[in-house]
Every structure is written in structure tokens, then in C-alpha cells.
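Extended Data, panel c. Modelled sequence:
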Amino acid sequence: MGLKFPAWSVVTSIFPLICRKTDGRSKLAVLDISNNALSGELSDCWMHWPSLTHINLGSNNLSGEIPNSMGSLVALNALSLQNNSLYGDIPSSLQNCKVLGLISLSHNKFSGIIPRWIVERTTLLVIHLRSNKFMGDIPPQICQLSYLRVLDLANNSLSGTIPRCLNNISSMAARPNEGDFNVFEAYYDYELYMESLILNIKGRDSEYKEILPYVRMIDLSSNNLSGSIPIEIFSLSGLLSLNLSHNHLMGMISVEIGGMEYLESLDLSRNNLSGEIPQTMANLTFLDILNLSYNNLSGRIPSSTQIQTFSPLSFFGNVELCGAPLPKNCPGDEEEEIQRSTGVGENREFPEIAWFYVGMGSGFFVGLWGVCGCLFFNKAWRYAYFQYLDDSKDSAYVAIAIKLKWLHQKLGIYNAEDDH
């Protein structure tokens, strides 16, 4: 069974129904009252609905804390409470939900540290906790979640370093077309229910529903993270989006970034990154969004058809960066431009053309003087050569005269026929 209220229904309260005892006979699997006008606190009566597998109460006006009784929903696959005014800690009772695959608590007022049980729940595919008040470190146990596809901890107060073991999340290193639909779908009353999430990818919020199982993303932006970007994160070749912006990260961008072949969006802006932009970034042929602005990057921007198509805004705020698409030229660019405009230096750019003309000129010179030299130093050859020219001239004169006389006779015959 399923209970889904469309947004236009404007439901304001359903919790009296939730607290009605069902004697364990309920078959309700899906409860979706998202995008309505629900208000007040969540009732602590969820133990009456053990058959629930999907709960979506997102985008309402709910307040208060998550009730402990939600931990009695042992069959729960997906819990979505995003876009409300819920607060407090995430209750430890939720660790009893042994098959939980999706937890979305974004855009609330939850606080405290990220519970250890969440990062140890190996069934999780989606952790969506952005825009709350979580603090503390990112638990390294998160690397045990080998099935994780979406990790969004953006816009919190997390500190410390990025775990170096993220390469253990094997699903993020897999091809994006490998999906797992068990968590994202449910059948009720002969209908298909599909989970959806509002994710910030490519710099804008978009709803992901049918393609949600294929999304691979990490967003740790707008926190207080420090240290370097671990090289291991660049081995997650299946990632579609990586956002580490608005932190205090330092160090260089590893050349290993060139292996993220499916990456479509990369945002490392507003950190303290230094060094040159790796030339291997030219390998990111699917890259659609790039933002490296406001760091301490230096040197020439790598030359590639892909990178030069981005706006200069993608590189602003890096005083030592130069080259297209920035208006600032690199040292030596002015001299090359002058040489190019005057034609100097073209031989260096096209050496095979230059050597072709050199060879042609020298061959003509050698051949010309080879013939002229023989005629100049050998008197007999010289007389024979000029005698040959005279004979050829006389033969040509005779042949032309005979041809002209023949044409004149022909024209005379034609004119006489016309007169008759």
C-alpha cells in the first residue's frame, strides 16, 4: 500500500492517523506527504507502521526533533525530511533501521556531530545532510560505505581534513551507468513509486528522479575543512560532480585528476590551493562546469579545446595565473605575437614547410649552374647547343608557315562556296 498526497492537496496534519493503532496489520509501505503545509512536531507513534519502507515528509513546515519511535521502522529503505525546521541530534534509535539506503535531512537545523552509526551503515547509498549545523570531523569510517553514490555534507561547520581513504568507496569508481534501484523504487497498489532528490550539481539546484540511481557526487563545500586535497579522491573515476569550494584547503592539484574521465562539474574555488593547474585536466572531456577562482594558482592555464571554452571567471582571483581565457598574457607571449605578426618564427612553427622551400631553392640553383657551367667551360658543347637552338627555331618557323598557308587555302575555298 501507499499513501501519497500531491502538493496541491495542502495537507496540514496527518499525525492523528499516524498515532492510530493498527494492531500490526498495516500494509502501508510508502508515505509521501512532501511539498505540503504540514506543521508542528512529528508524532512519536511510528511503531504502529512497521511495514513502511519509504517516508518523505520533505518541504513542509515541520519542527521539533526526530522521534525515537522512527527507529522501530526496521524495513525502512528511505527517509526524506529535507526542507523543514527540524533540529537537535539525529537519534541513535535510527541505527535499528538496518536496511536504510537513503537519508536526506538537508536544509534543517540539525546540530552536533555526524553520528558514527550513519557512516557505519554499509547499506547507505545516499547521505544528504547539507545546510545544517553539523560540526566536528568527517568520520573516516565513511570510507567503509562501498555502495555510497551521493555524499552531500555541504554548508555545515565541519572541520579537520578530508579522509584519505575515500578511494575505498568503490561505487564512486564504477561506471555511472551502474545503478541500484532497490532503494530508489517501491511498488504499491500496482504503481511504481520513485524517490527524488534536489541536488546542487553544476551550480544549480535540480530535481533528480529517474536518473538518481546513476548520480555519483561528492559535495563538501562551505565548511571549515583544511589540509590538502587527498590524491586518493582523484581515483574516483566514476564521479560526475566534485565540489570542495569555500574551505581552507591548500597544496597542489594532483596530476591524477586527469583520470576522472566522467567528471562533468568541478568546483575548487575559494581555497588556498597553489602551484600550476595540471596539464592532465585537458583529459576531462565531459567537463561542463569548472571553477578554480580565488586560489593561489600560478603559471600558464593548460591549452586544450575544452579548457579554453570556459569563462575567465573560472580562473579569476589567481594573481599568478596567465594565458587564455584570461586577458593576462604569460611571459614571452608578447614576443611570440610580434614574431607571428612579422612572419618571424613561422619556420619554428612549421619547420617542414621551411625546409621544403630551402631544398627547392638549392636544387634549382645547383641544376641551373650545372647546365650553364657545362656550356661555359666546354666550347664544343656550347656550339652544339646553340646550333640545336637555331635548327629548332628554323624548323618551328617552317612548320608554322606551312600551317598558315593551309588555313588560308581552306578559308578561300569556303568563301567561294558561299558566293555560289
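Residues 344-350 have pLDDT under 50 and may be disordered. This feature is highlighted in the accompanying rendering.
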